[in-house]
Write a structure and sequence with these properties.
Elements (H helix, E strand, L loop, with lengths): L2 H23 L2 H8 L3 H7 L3 H25 L4 H17 L5 H5 L7 H26 L3 H24 L6 H16 L19
Helix pairs in contact: 1-2, 1-4, 4-5, 4-7, 5-8, 5-9, 7-8, 8-9
Length: about 200
């Protein structure tokens, strides 16, 4: 099996074991068994359990950044963008793979390397959102970034809460509620006509 393919297979197995057991309870033996490889093969790719965990975390972080960037690129209408961004967070936490646990609920959040990665993912997403806010409102970059981080925070915390209280509100209702809240907040900042887009797209969605 090619190295990249083997690596992906090991990450899938590790993701399953870490999701079900958490970092501390998971053993490299369990992960090797789950992947159907010997422990030496696992160690060839990942010298330690922490290296393996960080690789799984990186993959999950990249996935979240990707789905949010796709959401932002999916439309030029701001109202739709807000809805798509909130949807992206809720789809991420509701996905059966449980990847969100690495990003939002790691039992290793005290580790410096983990914290650094979690900050990076929030920062990257906020940068993408801030760009749109700055372009549409003509707010200075620092102000746009603060608003963007606020949106990321509310999306993340509400999505985490929704997962923990899953029976209470349906996925569709949850998405609609938080999208309405976010849109009503962000639409309070007047839009300028100095952006690059033109005509109908310059009006609030």
């Amino acid at each position: 099996m090619p190295r990249d393919q083997r690596r992906a297979q090991l990450l899938d197995a590790a993701s399953d074991v870490f999701t079900s057991k958490g970092y501390h309870a998971a053993a490299m033996d369990d992960i090797a068994d789950s992947a159907g490889v010997s422990k030496p093969v696992l160690y060839q790719h990942f010298p330690s359990k922490l290296d393996l965990y960080l690789a799984v975390l990186d993959r999950s972080c990249d996935k979240l950044v990707e789905v949010v960037e796709e959401a932002l690129d999916s439309t030029d209408k701001n109202a739709d963008r807000v809805v798509a961004t909130m949807d992206a967070f809720y789809d991420f936490v509701s996905h059966s793979s449980g990847e969100f646990r690495f990003v939002f609920e790691s039992d290793l959040t005290g580790d410096g390397e983990v914290q650094k990665r979690l900050w990076r993912v929030n920062n990257e997403i906020a940068d993408a959102i801030a760009e749109v806010i700055a372009e549409d409102t003509a707010l200075p970059p620092d102000q746009a970034k603060l608003l963007a981080i606020s949106l990321v925070g509310s999306a993340q915390v509400s999505a985490r809460y929704w997962v923990s209280a899953k029976e209470a509100v349906s996925l569709g209702e949850a998405k609609q509620l938080v999208s309405n809240l976010a849109w009503r907040g962000i639409s309070g900042f007047p839009r300028t006509d100095t952006g690059h887009r033109s005509d109908a797209e310059h009006h609030h969605g």
